[in-house]
């Protein structure tokens, strides 16, 4: 039996339950967006962003891509890359309790968007502690990334944004990560250090813990509030608690060659091009030769031109100042320039996943 395979996996009912759950999450995300958009058009029509209508063929293609994503998610759990329990894992009670706060927060978001206030941050933030590009309300988020209130709502908001597919998208890292770490298979699993760059509230670390129950996990993020939330959720898991470090991914507080793997999810599109290059250089520096880097972010114009309208709408609805530059950026070329080899890329639903190796 493979590492995470359980007899329960053979049960077609488990797959049925998983697809049913995801169907419910998807409906919930769609319904939330439909109702909130109508409400906004009714109460504050001038605050409504100008979006481009999504053509029916694109909706069909998106539905098919979501089905492929979920099928692959199921298959990789069945193959033992991670346990099936991960497919059902979410802080459901917390999310249910926090959902009303998402609605209460919405008028603030609309107001900020209507007034084009993109630097509306808590008074006690010390600007010199952060790079200037970071001091913004990404997604028009209340407090940007800089409060416990923002951290409490973030995961739920992302889950709604991706119609319940955020975690299946994050899990596409796991297979290349596990395969990449095979380069160190002679070493004990507990000696392998895996760094998640821009770990946020820890959802990616939680997926990685499922696939690597013995690995030494490290999460880096600039937001103390997001790391506090990560700590509270990750400390509920059995096994070693991931080490959470506050710091800038452009100048990571880790020694050269100290990690065997690094991951990075949904960060690149929030960085100016120069910062993107710095983060890739830092990922390269902290990896041991032979180490694997797995990067996931939005699809781009070159690999998914059929989703151009969705990318354009995303930029119009959310405050994402670097997204337009990101979707035209050649990440493969950047990885090559940084020194990585064996670069591969795959598209899953609305995300692109790059895998690369630091040469031995
Ligand atoms: C869109 S969130 C992604 C979080 C997480 N990876 C996930 O999968 O949900 C972006 C994260 O990047 C962090 N971040 C942005 N710029 C950063 C930087 N220069 N260094 C470290 N973290 C950064 C933010 O604080 C935030 O937690």
Walk me through this protein's architecture:
- This protein has 360 residues and is α/β, with parallel strands linked by helices.
- The chain has a domain of 185 residues: 3-Layer(aba) Sandwich (Rossmann fold).
- The chain has 12 helices and 7 strands.
- It has a 7-stranded mixed β-sheet, with helices on both faces.
- Helix 3 crosses helix 4 and helix 4 packs across helix 8.
- The model has no long low-confidence stretch (mean pLDDT 93).
- The structure holds S-adenosylmethionine.
- The site of S-adenosylmethionine has 21 residues, from helix 7.
What's the quick description here?
This protein is α/β, with parallel strands linked by helices.
Q: Find the count of extended strands (DSSP E, 2+ residues).
A: 7
Shape: globular
Average pLDDT level: 93
The first-to-last residue Cα distance is 32 Å
Helicity, as a percent range:
40-55%
**In what range is the share of β-strand residues?**
5-15%
> What is the N-to-C order of secondary-structure elements (H for helix, E for strand)?
HHHHHHEHEHEEHEHHHEE
How does the helix and strand content classify structurally? alpha/beta
CATH superfamily of the domain at 166-311 and 319-357: Vaccinia Virus protein VP39
Itemize the secondary structure elements and their pairings:
Blueprint: H1 12-43, H2 56-78, H3 92-114, H4 148-161, H5 166-170, H6 174-181, E1 193-197, H7 203-211, E2 216-221, H8 224-234, E3 243-246, E4 259-265, H9 273-286, E5 287-298, H10 308-317, H11 323-327, H12 331-338, E6 341-348, E7 351-357
Parallel strand pairs: 1-2, 1-4, 2-3, 4-5
Antiparallel strand pairs: 5-7, 6-7
Helix pairs in contact: 3-4, 4-8
């Amino acid at each position: 039996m493979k590492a995470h395979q359980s007899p329960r996996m053979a049960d077609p009912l488990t797959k049925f339950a998983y697809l049913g759950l995801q169907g419910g999450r998807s409906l919930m995300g769609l319904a939330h967006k439909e109702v909130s958009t109508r409400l906004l058009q009714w109460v504050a029509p001038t605050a409504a962003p100008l979006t481009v209508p999504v053509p029916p063929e694109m909706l069909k293609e998106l539905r098919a891509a979501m089905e492929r994503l979920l099928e692959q998610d199921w298959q990789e759990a069945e193959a033992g890359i991670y346990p099936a329990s991960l497919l059902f894992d979410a802080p459901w009670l917390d999310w249910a309790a926090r959902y009303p706060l998402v609605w209460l927060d919405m008028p603030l978001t609309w107001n900020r968007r209507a007034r084009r206030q993109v630097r509306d941050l808590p008074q006690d933030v010390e600007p010199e502690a952060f790079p200037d590009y970071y001091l913004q309300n990404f997604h028009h988020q209340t407090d940007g990334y800089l409060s416990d209130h923002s951290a409490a709502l973030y995961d739920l908001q992302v889950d709604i944004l991706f119609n319940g597919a955020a975690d299946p998208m994050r899990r596409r890292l796991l297979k290349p990560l596990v395969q990449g770490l095979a380069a160190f298979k002679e070493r004990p699993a507990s000696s392998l250090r895996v760094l998640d760059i821009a770990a946020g509230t820890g959802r990616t670390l939680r997926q990685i813990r499922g696939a690597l129950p013995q690995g030494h996990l490290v999460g880096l993020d600039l937001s103390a509030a997001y790391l506090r939330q990560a700590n509270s959720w990750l400390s509920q898991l059995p096994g070693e608690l991931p080490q959470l470090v506050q710091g800038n991914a452009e100048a990571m507080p880790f020694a050269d060659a100290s990690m065997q793997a690094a991951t990075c999810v949904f960060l690149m599109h929030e960085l100016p091009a120069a910062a993107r290059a710095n983060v890739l250089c830092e990922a390269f520096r902290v990896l041991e030769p032979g180490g694997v880097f797995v990067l996931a972010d939005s699809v781009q114009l070159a690999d998914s031109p059929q989703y151009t309208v969705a990318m354009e709408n995303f930029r119009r609805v959310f405050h994402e100042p670097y997204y337009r530059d990101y979707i035209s950026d050649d990440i493969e070329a950047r990885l090559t320039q940084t020194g990585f080899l064996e670069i591969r890329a795959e598209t899953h639903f609305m995300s692109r996943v790059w895998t690369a190796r630091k040469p031995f």
